[in-house]
Design goal:
The complex is a heterodimer of chains A (376) and B (640).
Chain A (H helix, E strand, L loop, with lengths): L1 H22 L4 H21 L4 H22 L3 H28 L7 E2 L4 E2 L1 H19 L6 H19 L4 H17 L4 H18 L5 H11 L10 H13 L10 H4 L11 H8 L1 H24 L4 H25 L19 H17 L6
Antiparallel strand pairs in A: 1-2
Chain B lengths: L1 H44 L1 H12 E6 L6 E2 L5 E13 L7 H10 L8 H10 L6 E4 L4 H10 L6 E10 L7 H4 L1 E4 L2 H6 L2 H4 L4 E5 H5 L1 H5 L3 E6 L19 E2 L6 E4 L3 H10 L5 E7 L4 E8 L4 H6 L3 H9 L8 H4 L9 H10 L9 E3 L2 E2 L8 E2 L7 E3 L1 H6 L3 H21 L22 H7 L10 H7 L10 H12 L4 E2 L4 E5 L6 E3 L4 E2 L8 H14 L16 E7 L22 E8 L6 E7 L5 H18 L8 H10 L1
Parallel strand pairs in B: 2-10
Antiparallel strand pairs in B: 1-8, 2-3, 3-4, 3-5, 6-7, 8-9, 10-18, 11-12, 11-23, 13-16, 14-15, 17-20, 18-19, 21-22, 22-23
Classes of the chains: A mainly alpha (376), B alpha+beta (640).
């Protein structure tokens, strides 16, 4: 009797929850996945900041802002999103040019606009605006895209990419390019063109080498041989692989990572936070996080496949896929598979506007899923 | 039519997207597997490797210097010990600008500006996180001065370390040696790991030769450090297992030196350039080893400034030079008893056979006169008288009869021309000339020929022949003990400072010198007895309650031109002959061999013999006669 009571209570609670989520146009599993990652991130932040509660409070605040934005965007109608797209893209482009101009007249790297209260990175906006613009264009064309469409897509993608790379911010520039490219790939870009793109990508990398800033070249060279400059540019990679490797399978224990706690590991709260996880919680801890990431990504791709509208499908799919690109580039960098390009670990790295952007993207995804039945 | 195509397209596009989504999922999972593979490699397969690297990062080893062994004389009097001392140390990696820091330290008088370059060199040769001593033995004033300026010198601090202290000062310094700051040259040959945390090393003498015993083993303390190299006691819940490995203190040494005899010996040649070796012929133990002038080894232990070292190093009297072991002098007449034995052994002379000494010797067919020290000659002399009166022509003729080969070969059996193998370093071999030696020693063909005249002066220990006072002592010991002899040594026992267990080092007996007829020993010794009884040094034997065998000698510093009058007054003090005296006592059962060399002392009997007597009295009678007559002796010599 009691058990049935409990069961029915549980059932009722779940139903009630589903109703609330439905009303808020949120996807339960995705929300749980994202929440778990964010919670994990705050837990690690406490350790990586050396037990600083202040950092955790600031991190949680940022998270809350992102969550509110996600909730707000989830309420938008797909039509509004589409109408917003050209304006967002245009605004982003103008702001990028302004930032570049300030950076040119000022000194060195310039990535953000100081709006007094907050510092805002236009390139972050572009991480969402570019896939939106690509998806919007493809919605109007038949798929797979033809040559003319591809040319237009190239301009939409490469213009903000170039403006970001010359800031200089190679990492974000590549991510913007990827975010657009993913839309095109999901949109059915021919396999032959994909191969051709890969080849020309390599060629571009060779040519692009000449246009890289010294520090960017240094990063690539150091990636190829970290031991060549152990105290300089190679220091990051050496210390992060030591942190990961010494962590072993189960780690040294929460708050007990010597590499992190004794500050041998640089940028341990931001880009290299994965090394702290690997050191203190081991491969086991990383596998749990990776599992959560995969769950979110696969869930996002699944949700996208349920949508009837091309714009919704392509945008949602690319937002889910780019989330994984973040994870892969960051983890690859920390573990020495990829060069150090300054890509944060999504929802776990402290600071930056990327957390807000990502959550905004998921808000749109949820809105699109909530309205999945709306085709045209 | 258009609408139909649109609908068809939508269906196709949905299929296309589905394919692409699945492809994306596959790629995502594949890439995730790549990541997991990489992490598995790092975290599981290479785990141990990276654990070592992480430990290397966070654990630093700090050395705990071991206490150096104490050195005692044969009766347990302390010759070298350790005292706490304050020193200024610098940790290179904690100093923002080393050049500037050293310059400013010199400005406030804590560093001699002449030393800055040396200090910099030493700093460069050490590891960045090692604390490098830059100034030893701070005085109270120095410490107060540094205290005021301390905040201006990050990475520089006062540390308490133990420093070597020699309570006897200059006494026996050339036997003991000293410890000094580890130099770059030292660093090239030592095991840096073993010396981590040590700032000094034995430089010469016993301190250097027994460095490995005295040094002990430095302990190690592991400390946890952060990325900036700062020591972190405990950080949050981080409490790594750090090891403390205690060191072992160095072994104590007991020397054969008798401090009281040493003091007497030192006192007698205090203001001279001289060397004294006294040893026990029954075991080779050195009882006293003097080389004057000396120096205060505490200066080196404290750290000499550059001008102080320069002063010592460039002093014309060469206080740093160990005359007893490294000084090579013509042995002069001290070898005459051995030359006499060579003559007896080869049947060229007989004990009672007399020869006429006209005051000179000439080789057949030559008008060149090899002069006697006594211009009017000694008349008829037999072997005993020849030794007792040190008759040169007797030995000139004997040497000529023996020939250079036989003379060389016989003398070589008496420790001449080779090192004795004493247990400290710095020993020189001297020269025992031969025709063969001369061929190798000169470049010009015409210089390589051995002339008969050279054999003649070889017979009285002049010419090319040079020996160290230690060699002459060993020669005398062989004679005293009738062939039996031992490797000379200073260190007799080693004591473990913790278990107090004393390990006596065995004496090392060398193959005895054997003569065809044992009675030849007696003849040579009788000659040396006669030296003390009516012979050249009889004044020095007056009132001795024990029997003494001795031999005087003078070593020419330069040769006087033929027929020129030996105008001593005209010769600068430094060109006067060196004075030798060798002796052993008691003759029946010798317990001490003494060799005294006084540079430019002129007269073996007048200058050197009384010193030897005082040393023998000290050892045999425990009667310690200090030289109040010393200066008087000098003036007498000059008044002659």
């Amino acid at each position: 009797m009691l058990r049935e009571d409990v069961d029915s209570t549980t059932k009722r609670t779940l139903t009630r929850t589903a109703q609330i989520l439905g009303a808020l146009r949120l996807d339960g599993p995705l929300l749980i996945g994202l929440g778990a990652i964010a919670l994990y991130g705050q837990l690690i932040l406490y350790s990586s900041s050396g037990g600083d509660l202040g950092s955790v409070i600031r991190g949680s605040t940022r998270l809350a802002i992102g969550a509110v934005l996600m909730l707000a965007l989830a309420q938008l109608r797909p039509g509004s999103l589409r109408r917003l797209t050209p304006w967002l893209y245009g605004l982003g482009l103008v702001l990028l040019i302004v930032v570049d101009a300030i950076g040119y007249t000022g000194k060195g790297a310039q990535r953000w606009l100081d709006l007094g209260l907050v510092r805002f990175q236009p390139s972050e906006l572009m991480k969402i605006a570019v896939p939106m613009a690509c998806a919007l264009l493809l919605r109007e064309r038949s798929l797979p895209p033809d040559g003319k469409t591809l040319a237009q897509l190239s301009i939409i993608i490469l213009l903000p990419t170039t403006l970001t790379v010359i800031q200089p911010d190679l990492g974000t520039g590549l991510l913007i390019m990827f975010s657009g490219l993913l839309v095109v790939l999901l949109g059915g870009l021919g396999v032959r063109i994909i191969s051709a793109l890969a080849v020309s990508g390599i060629a571009a990398a060779v040519v692009g080498w000449n246009f890289l800033h010294d520090y960017q070249r240094q990063r690539v060279l150091t990636f190829l041989d970290p031991s060549a400059d152990p105290l300089g540019a190679g220091y990051h990679i050496i210390q992060s692989t030591i942190a990961l490797g010494s962590g072993g399978f189960f780690g040294k224990g929460y708050l007990k990572g010597t590499q992190g706690q004794l500050e041998f590991l640089p940028e341990r709260t931001t880009d290299f936070v994965l090394a702290v996880i690997g050191e203190e919680l081991g491969l086991f801890g990383i596998l749990i996080l990776l599992g959560l990431y995969l769950f979110v990504v696969l869930r996002a791709l699944f949700l996208a496949s349920q949508m009837r509208d091309t714009f919704a499908r392509l945008l949602s799919g690319s937002l889910g896929a780019i989330f994984f690109v973040y994870v892969f580039i960051n983890a690859g960098m920390v573990s020495g598979l990829l060069p150090v390009v300054g890509v944060p670990l999504p929802l776990v790295s402290y600071g930056g506007t990327s957390m807000v952007t990502l959550l905004a993207g998921f808000g749109m995804l949820m809105s699109l899923y909530a309205n999945r039945k709306l085709a045209a | 039519m258009r609408l139909g195509a649109r609908i068809k397209d939508l269906w196709r596009e949905e299929r296309l997207f589905e394919q692409r989504s699945i492809a994306a999922m596959v790629v995502v999972i594949a890439l995730a597997l790549v990541l997991i593979g990489r992490l598995f490699w790092l975290q599981v397969i290479r785990h141990e490797h990276y654990t070592n690297l992480a430990t290397g990062n966070q654990v630093r080893i700090e050395a705990l210097p071991a206490a150096r062994g104490i050195i005692y004389d044969r009766d347990g009097a302390i010759l070298a010990e350790n005292q706490p001392a304050y020193q200024l140390e610098l940790v290179p990696e904690q100093v923002p600008n080393i050049d500037d820091t050293l310059r400013r330290l010199a400005e406030i008088g804590l560093l001699a500006s002449d030393d800055i370059d040396d200090v910099k060199r030493i700093i460069r040769s050490r590891r960045a996180f090692d604390s490098v001593p830059i100034r030893l033995r701070l005085t109270d004033t120095d410490m107060a001065r540094f205290g005021v300026h301390r905040f201006e010198f990050p990475g520089v601090d006062i540390r308490t370390r133990t420093a070597r202290y020699y309570p006897q000062g200059e006494i026996a310094v050339h036997a003991l040696g000293y410890v000094g700051t580890i130099s770059e040259k030292d660093l090239e040959r030592i095991d840096r790991e073993a010396y981590a945390g040590s700032s000094t090393i034995g430089k010469v003498g016993v301190e250097a030769a027994f460095e490995d015993f005295l040094r002990g083993r430095n302990g190690r303390r592991e400390i946890m450090v952060n990325a900036r190299g700062r020591s972190v006691e405990k950080l949050g819940v981080l409490e790594p297992a750090l090891r403390n490995i205690p060191g072992d203190p160095g072994q104590d040494l007991f020397l054969s030196l008798d401090l009281e005899v040493q003091r007497v010996a030192e006192a007698w040649v205090k203001d001279r350039r001289a060397a004294i070796v006294a040893l026990d012929p029954n075991n080779g133990e050195i009882l006293a080893l003097v080389s004057r002038p000396g120096f205060d080894p505490n200066g080196f232990a404290r750290g000499l400034t550059r001008p102080e070292f320069k002063e010592l190093n460039e002093n014309p009297d060469r206080p740093l030079f160990n005359r007893a072991l490294s000084g090579t002098y013509p042995p002069g007449s001290t070898i005459k008893p051995v030359v006499a034995m060579a003559g007896l052994e080869h049947g060229l002379v007989k004990l009672r056979e007399t020869r006429f000494c006209p005051g000179y010797f000439s080789l057949p067919g030559s008008s060149h006169r090899f002069r006697d020290w006594q211009p009017r000659g000694h008349g008829d002399v037999d072997l005993i008288t020849a030794i007792a009166q040190s008759c040169d022509p007797y030995f000139y003729a004997l040497a000529d009869q023996l020939g250079v080969k036989r003379l060389h070969d016989f003398l070589a059996r008496f420790a001449l021309g080779g090192t004795t193998g004493i247990d400290v370093g710095g020993e020189k071999a001297g020269i025992l000339p031969s025709a063969e030696w001369k061929r190798g020693a000169f470049k010009q063909r015409r210089d390589q020929v051995w002339f008969p005249g050279e054999t003649v002066i070889f017979g009285i220990g002049q010419g090319y022949m040079t020996s160290t006072p230690l060699q002459v002592a060993q020669m005398t010991a062989i004679l005293a003990n009738r062939g039996r002899h031992f490797k000379p040594r200073l260190v007799t026992a080693i004591r473990d400072p913790i278990s107090r267990e004393v390990k006596t080092l065995p004496t090392e007996e060398l193959p005895p010198v054997q003569l065809r007829e044992a009675v030849h020993w007696d003849h040579a010794i009788d000659g040396m007895r006669a030296v003390m009884q009516g012979g050249t040094a009889s004044r020095s034997a007056l009132g001795a309650p024990y029997s003494i065998a001795g031999k005087t000698g003078t070593a020419q510093v330069f040769s006087v031109a033929q027929n020129a009058r030996y105008n001593e007054a005209a010769i600068a003090e430094r060109l006067r002959d060196h004075a030798w005296f060798v002796a052993f006592a008691p003759i029946e059962a010798p317990r001490i061999v003494v060799v005294v060399l006084v540079e430019n002392g002129r007269s073996g009997s007048g200058t050197a013999a009384p010193i030897a007597r005082a040393i023998m009295d000290a050892h045999l009678l425990r009667k310690f006669v200090m030289p109040q007559g010393m200066s008087a002796n000098v003036s007498t010599a000059e008044g002659e």
